[in-house]
Design brief:
Blueprint lengths: L10 E3 L5 E3 H23 L2 E2 L13 E2 L5 E2 L5 E6 L11 E10 L5 E4 L17 E4 L7 H8 L6 E6 L20 H12 L8 E11 L3
Antiparallel strand pairs: 1-2, 3-4, 5-6, 6-10, 7-8, 7-9, 7-11, 10-11
Length: 213
């Protein structure tokens, strides 16, 4: 009680008779609480080292999700709806719809699936994203995920940075957000040099497979 009455003084005496700065004393409980809360959270999560990101200032860890399948490349996926029919082969064109989220940074959406696609007179797949399997037109995670899908299927994938956009630039490989706000949201995360986790989440719906012509 005697110590509490002297908090207005510039310093107080500890139990060993040493003088302690009042500001340092007040900071001790806050620091202790902060460290304890981080330790408690870390104990509940399972992380994996990502060699491709060593020495960089972002994406230090990758979360493993127990309800997802993980491939050798590090791609995690689960099927929200299983399609019907054969999977696409090299040289075939796939027509897809997709959602994109910056799951490592506040889960911000940068592309929305099921949005309006032009007018009825423009054709069934005019405004959907299309690419040829094996052509290198999309990020590695997209190519890998769609190779194992059948038409009508919806697959959710968690994409670590090394399977995502090369050089943190969505202009180099697809899919590219179709709106300015989506491009800005994705670009903010990809190009940020701070401690931002660049892990992305995509929902991919395979609408159609167009055979080789």
């Amino acid at each position: 009680m005697m110590l509490l009455t002297k908090l207005g003084a510039p310093s107080i005496t500890d139990c060993n008779g040493c003088m302690m700065d009042r500001r340092r004393l007040l900071l001790i409980p806050a620091v202790t609480i902060s460290i304890g809360s981080f330790q408690g959270g870390a104990a509940k999560a399972e992380f994996a080292d990502m060699p491709a990101l060593r020495g960089k200032d972002y994406g230090k860890t990758k979360m493993r999700y127990p309800d997802y399948n993980e491939t050798e490349s590090g791609l995690q996926y689960k099927d929200l709806r299983v399609g019907d029919g054969p999977c696409p082969k090299n040289g075939e064109t796939v027509v897809i719809d997709w959602d994109g989220y910056t799951i490592g940074y506040y889960g911000r959406i940068f592309e929305a699936r099921n949005k309006t696609k032009g007018g009825s007179f423009e054709g069934g797949d005019k405004d959907f994203f299309k690419f040829k399997i094996g052509s290198g037109q999309v990020i590695p995670a997209f190519e890998e995920a769609i190779r194992g899908m059948a038409p009508g299927g919806v697959r959710r994938i968690i994409v670590p940075p090394d399977l995502g956009y090369p050089d943190n630039d969505y202009n180099k490989l697809g899919p590219k957000p179709t709106t300015f706000s989506g491009q800005r949201a994705l670009d903010f995360v990809l190009r940020n040099q701070g401690l931002i986790d660049k892990t992305l989440l995509f929902d991919i719906e395979l609408l159609k497979i167009i055979p080789n012509q």
